[in-house]
Design brief:
NmrA-type_oxidoreductase; Rossmann fold; 7-stranded parallel beta sheet; NAD(P)-bd_dom; 299 residues; two-stranded parallel ribbon; NAD(P)-bd_dom_sf; 12 helices; alpha/beta; 44% helix; single chain; globular
């Protein structure tokens, strides 16, 4: 059995859907914090069990009988995040999993300027020490994050963000399909970290603003906001100071080209070219159900 954690989240749900096109539903299990949100999966024959990275006993039940377990990283940063990941790794080992797959990020390193990448590196250390074969999916930076940063500028005509560098923005759907391919087909086996799983181009926010100008027919200008100004703006808007610092570190890391690498591995896994950022931006700009002005879709 293949067990996927976080199966009601943005990435995990897509992974399960792609997996179900490759293996029978009775070979798929999900570990979710709120099983009622996965009722539709249960109706299709997927094994649904409650599991939380903060409750080892529950994970033992959720992981029971699994040969491959996908640990979808939590959407937080810092020491507590790494502790939760270690709990999930320990539970997978105790369950007798023959392979653990983990969703990391390109640029994962203990010396990264981005906290999430340091967290991923610490989790990979736990995986390496587990004694179980493991694969860490070095996913390209989620394109939805870049488009969320861009969104206010689409309304105002000015993308005012800290200085950045090229980032290989990559679609959730493509990363989910690649994860499903690796889980379902053991011929696609990676020992340890994969090469970066990325789209084919690395773009700056100046590039994204130019694309948005082209697609909307309006002039959208990229301007540089000082780091301190950006952080203060986030905090004034209600973002906790620590989180604001983490968000700023995305730009700090991008300036050092931590997310600039492009690699053909994702294309090979998909058997096609990844979805380009232009197409993702065009989708974001699509008219709403009632027509009229373009709107920005939520994540």
């Amino acid at each position: 059995m293949i067990v996927v954690t976080g199966a009601t989240g943005q990435l995990g749900s897509r992974i399960v859907e792609s997996l179900l096109t490759r293996v029978p539903a009775d070979r798929v299990g999900v570990s979710v914090r709120e099983p009622e949100k996965a009722r539709a999966l249960a109706d299709r024959g997927v094994r649904v069990r409650r599991g939380s990275f903060t409750e080892p006993a529950g994970l033992a039940h959720a992981f029971e009988g699994a040969t491959r377990i996908l640990i979808v990283s939590v959407d937080r940063m810092g020491e507590e995040t790494v502790r939760q990941h270690r709990t999930a790794v320990d539970a997978a080992v105790a369950a007798g999993a023959r392979r653990i797959v983990y969703t990391a990020q390109m640029g994962a390193s203990p010396t990264s300027r981005f906290q999430a990448c340091r967290d991923h590196a610490a989790t990979e250390e736990a995986l390496a020490a587990s004694g179980v074969p493991w694969t860490s999916l070095r996913n390209g930076f989620h394109a939805s994050s870049g488009l969320d940063f861009l969104a206010p500028g689409l309304a105002s005509g000015e993308v005012a963000l800290p200085a950045d560098g090229p980032v290989c923005w990559t679609a959730h759907a493509d990363l989910a399909e690649a994860a499903a391919v690796i889980l379902a087909d053991e011929s696609h086996r990676f020992e340890g970290p994969t090469p970066p799983l990325t789209g084919t181009e690395a773009l700056t926010f100046a590039d994204l603003a130019a694309l948005a100008s082209e697609l909307t027919g309006r002039t959208i200008t990229r301007t540089t906001a000082p780091d301190d100004t950006f952080r203060a703006h986030l905090v004034a808007g209600g973002v906790p100071a620590e989180t604001a610092g983490h968000l700023l570190s995305i730009f700090t890391a991008a300036r050092e080209r931590e997310f600039a690498t492009t690699d053909p591995t994702l294309s090979r896994l998909l058997g096609r070219q990844p979805v380009p950022v232009r197409a993702l931006l065009r989708e974001r700009l699509a008219p709403g159900p009632s027509g009229g002005q373009p709107f920005m879709r939520s994540r």
